[in-house]
Amino acid sequence: MATYSTEIQWGGAEGQWHADTDLRLDIINRKQIVDAPPAEGTQISWSGPMGNGSVTFFDGGSRFQGTAQFPDEGPVGYRGTLKS
Predict the structure, then answer these.
(1) For a 10 Å CB count at each end of the chain, is N or C smaller?
(2) Residue 71, preceding bond cis, omega within 30 degrees?
(3) What is the pLDDT along the chain (84 residues), one digit of tens a residue?
């Protein structure tokens, strides 16, 4: 499992970033499907009643960046940094 401090950005590419709730990543089936933290270049997408998003991990899995959309909100930039 890996936990990331996250931020969201609205107002376009020049908009300010704002602190958001932590993202906890734990994807396991018969084996660990996504390492914790994920390998460089790993892409994860999700969609469900609580929102959708798509992110790519970089800097050895210590950071991610992408987009997300939460219920009753528009799409936002979404980024995170691995908590120690």
Answers:
(1) C
(2) no
(3) 899 999 999 998 889 999 999 999 887 777 766 767 888 999 999 999 999 999 999 999 999 999 999 999 999 999 999 997
Tell me the domain boundaries of the chain: 2-82
Amino acid at 53: G
Q: In what order do the strands lie in the sheet with 2-9?
A: 17-25, 2-9, 76-82, 63-69, 51-58, 43-48
Q: No. of H helices and E strands in the chain?
A: 0, 6
Architecture of domain 2-82: Beta Barrel (2.40)
Structure tokens at 50: 């609580």
